[in-house]
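Weekly structure sync, notes
Attendees: PL, DS, HV (note-taker this week)

Item 1: Glutathione import ATP-binding protein GsiA
DS walked through the input record. Source organism listed as Rhizobium altiplani. Sequence as pasted into the shared doc:
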Amino acid sequence: MIEISNLTVRFAATLRPVVKNLSLAVGKGAAFGLVGESGCGKSTVLRAMSGLNPQYEGRIRLDGETLDRRRDRPFFRRVQMVFQDPYGSLHPRKTIRSQIKEPLRNQGLASNSIDVDAVLRSVGLDPSLSYRFPHQLSGGQRQRVAIARALVLDPAVLLLDEPTSALDVSVQAEILNLLDDLRKDRGLTYLLVSHDLAVVSHMCSRVAIMEAGEIVEQVEIERLRQGAVEHPYSQRLLQASRLYGKQVHAMT
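Item 1 (cont.): predicted structure, written out as tokens:
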């Protein structure tokens, strides 16, 4: 479903690339993870894929079709993105119902062509919340709204940029389980960015590990769980993740 070949991204012609010659492929209906420390270029890959950053070198293909640098309107019916901050991605002065209908307006579709109540129920929200504003919802509820809005156009691909990192730990598992169920039920393809190996291990079947804008290793998730990684950076990242997990467990 997604094929990225030799992707290179610079924010200025004279600067070093933020992403360098990156290649990956994601099968239809699969969940693929990009992991690495902050600043390694993970979110930049998503921005190039989504069309938010059209200034890139290389080739991006969607379901066998090479994408133009400037994405057309039909592209956004097939690909939607869920951002890290559920409050920042929602308009503070628009009701939830209005924001869920917004993708329809952007595509020139009738706003009554969907059942907003049914969309909210599909992400575990009570339809009565549709007349509230974002500040009246919890963080987990806001992220469910963001997911609902992304699903309105019935896309084939969701790009997930740290979708749980801004949420309380108690809510993170609920959102991850919701995303996993939606992928299986709808046959969605996920490209998930995270710095949290536990999140990627829960969601994905394969993962690419990034360092300084490059993929240093790609592994099946079972190998990651077993610690069977080969690159020195992958080993350090896995060790740091395990050490952090022990510290959290000790504090609780």
